[in-house]
């Protein structure tokens, strides 16, 4: 069982990861406001036995809408509730900011989602540093220290509110007129420097107790939050060694706070482009690139390898005279790959197709090749999980129909869900309230 | 058409209005966490051509859970999203507080609900003064002035955010790669004393433009908010004259701010208990009462009419010797009715069954009698709308199957929906952004 990996899927407004995916054949250009698209994708992912659908979220319009749809537009609680009603097993994970919200609202909305989905909700608790998102909430950019101090208080308050309605409090004896054991429904009375809430919540635990807490965002502060509170972490390494390093740090952080590293899954962001042949996968990516802003991409590739490049160079290899002076830009960890591909004599278009400026590593090729890549990362010890970002949303079907069966055959992925809740999928125990032993480790926080 | 009334329905956690309704035969005692109950009720109300399902909301656990379920527990955005996916026409209205939330969240969640429901959302914008709800949000009780000043800024900010994405901004031309007209998607940059938001929102208008704004809560401050921003108002009069008075004040408030009184509907809260005979309706109410805390009710009836009463008196008329000194308690507008019924020699149990201490007037009796009551109020000019509160949720089916056809026959209620959006049902025009002429009347606010 421990050999098996965990998978979530992310769709970015329903189109898929590539910015121009909204123009891809078969993709509904109105996906960003169409809940049906998310429901259908979640049903596909559920057929593939994914652990969860994941909606990242930064509440700001950061794309240029002249040429690209808003990202993460349809509000996640609304989207996931729609999905919850029309799926049965797949987990439902959304980001909600500890900087911009109030714990009572987050505790209540995620618990409601957890109840409506019979125990399938997850909350990715992140701090917000995006200036535009902060301005939408009428505030400036808090310091990193402030953000994480608030995040700590915030997550503790949410978990305490969840725990304010204990297991087995519900009685619901109509004959006797006894609704609940009131001694098991009690205020939390938390008051910190940043947030306070009295409680109790008006909602009892779900089938999994409380939603699974995910953490994302790096640095020591992030690790402390993960170690103290989370059962899952989103990470975006560009290569295996940094993935392994982060997974080890997450496990260590859990141990530091007296929690089991076995109850931690690190989900590594991966983009997938699957086709019948490796060549077709590259061509698919070239076609997606061609629908977007190639000019900017070519210019940026030039910066990655330290040579001047423009759109006219798109179908030629980087000229030998330029290659002699090329060097990988140390500010961008993806630059060595770009330089290597240029050195192999690929055209600029083909270099780009390899994903040299994508936010995540690109697993491209045949279903077997994509499975190989995931297996290599997995067996290296990157933390058991992947957050799959299909290049365009139709890629999810290819992944489910072609890659998943290979992973299953290799014993790397479940054939059936073992249980019904997200906690079941992740192999973590029921929890309702703060982690056991939370009080003992409070000192370690500061 | 102007003869017709408008109807919303409210279920109070899915059980119905009476506190003991959770114990009523056929009612699921877990309704407060069961979205299916709300979906089914909404489908029933849609069959009856109701304008909307309404979820009032105060985010606090205010019942004694030993004997009664939490009220308004399942979070409204989650509940209404579930309902939206499984209904087609009925409006979806929820309360959300201007005191406890941030405009960006409210603007985004209600617009998402409006999009997912194809233009059926409504937002009941209220201030919060409940100390427990405020403590859940870590804050004390603001003054009435502060609350309403913030409410004003808050609603303006939400409407401005809705308007930040103009009509016809969406292009979605996949061939040309033009997603939207960026000149029609612009920041709002609102900054007041209480709330600020830059925007723009990442979501375009729905089929009705933006959600319908409802207002609730009395006094001059409430009227000003209604007059300036709302198209619908919730009011809870105990008798026709105060209902008429409030409806006139609402119409006047709209005119004051240059808005049409014809585009205002006042929904008056009414409890319904429908049965084959008036006697059966009273017996139904007695049975519901018997499942609750009769002791407290009897004692309170004593206070209403100024005589000592206890549970032992329940099946007797109020004794003649007591009646001689009885007087209606001036602090409770329902007291004259209680005194009148006592004077008629009804037993204490039967007096209570008339709803002498209910939060709304009780329309009880045969379908014809209930229709008569609604017609009488309606024709007196209470503002065209009723918020129907069935005593227990099964009462909604009686109302839809038995009362609605009578209202239709009398020409007092629609037989079919005329349109698809909540604005269509209410007969109000499309709106996206602040009301026309908003700027001209800002001075009138203070």
Sequence stretches where pLDDT stays below 50 over 5 or more residues of chain A: 442-446
Assign a percent range to the helix content of chain A: 25-40%
User: What would you report as the Rg of chain A, rounded to the nearest angstrom?
Assistant: 23 Å
**Class of secondary structure makeup of chain A:** alpha/beta
Main pleated sheet of chain A: 8 strands, parallel, barrel
Give the CATH architecture of the largest domain in chain A. Answer: Alpha-Beta Barrel
Oligomer type: homodimer
Q: Could you give the distance between the termini of chain A?
A: 37 Å
The CATH topology of the largest domain in chain A is what?
Answer: TIM Barrel
């Amino acid at each position: 069982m421990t050999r098996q990996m965990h998978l979530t899927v992310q769709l970015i407004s329903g189109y898929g990861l590539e910015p121009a995916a909204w123009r891809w054949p078969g993709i509904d250009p109105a996906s960003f406001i169409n809940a049906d698209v998310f429901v259908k994708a979640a049903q596909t992912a559920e057929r593939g036995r994914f652990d969860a659908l994941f909606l990242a979220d930064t509440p700001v319009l950061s794309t240029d809408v002249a040429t690209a749809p808003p990202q993460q537009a349809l509000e996640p609680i609304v989207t996931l509730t729609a999905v919850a009603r029309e799926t049965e097993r797949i987990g439902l994970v959304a980001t909600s900011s500890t900087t911009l919200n109030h714990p009572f609202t987050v505790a209540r909305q995620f618990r409601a989602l957890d109840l409506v989905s019979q125990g399938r909700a997850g909350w990715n608790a992140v701090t917000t540093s995006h200036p535009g998102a902060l301005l939408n909430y009428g505030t400036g950019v808090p310091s990193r220290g402030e953000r994480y101090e608030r995040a700590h208080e915030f997550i503790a308050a949410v978990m305490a509110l969840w725990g304010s309605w204990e297991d087995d409090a519900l009685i619901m004896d109509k004959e006797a007129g006894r609704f609940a054991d009131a001694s098991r429904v009690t205020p939390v009375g938390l008051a910190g420097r940043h947030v306070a809430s009295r409680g109790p919540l008006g909602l009892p635990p779900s089938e999994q107790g409380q939603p699974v807490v995910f953490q994302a965002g790096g640095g020591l502060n992030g690790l402390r939050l993960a170690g103290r509170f989370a059962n899952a972490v989103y990470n975006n390494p560009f290569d295996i060694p940094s993935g392994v390093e982060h997974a080890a740090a997450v496990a260590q952080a859990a141990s530091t706070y007296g929690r089991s590293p076995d109850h931690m899954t690190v989900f590594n962001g991966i983009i997938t482009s699957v086709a019948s042949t490796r060549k077709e996968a590259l061509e698919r990516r070239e076609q997606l690139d061609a629908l977007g802003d190639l000019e900017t991409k070519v210019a940026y590739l030039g910066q990655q390898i330290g040579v001047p490049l423009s759109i006219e160079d798109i179908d030629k290899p980087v000229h030998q005279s330029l290659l002699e002076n090329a060097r990988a830009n140390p500010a961008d960890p993806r630059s060595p790959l770009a330089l290597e591909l240029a050195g192999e004599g690929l055209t600029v278009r083909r270099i780009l197709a390899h994903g040299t400026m994508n936010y995540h590593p690109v697993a491209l090729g045949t279903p077997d090749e994509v499975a190989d890549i995931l297996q290599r990362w997995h067996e290296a010890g990157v933390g058991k999980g992947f957050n799959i970002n299909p290049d365009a949303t139709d890629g999810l079907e290819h992944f489910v129909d072609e890659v998943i069966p290979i992973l299953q055959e290799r014993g790397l992925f479940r054939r059936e869900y073992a249980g019904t809740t997200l906690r079941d999928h992740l192999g973590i125990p029921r929890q309702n309230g703060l982690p056991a032993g939370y009080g003992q480790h409070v000192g370690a926080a500061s």
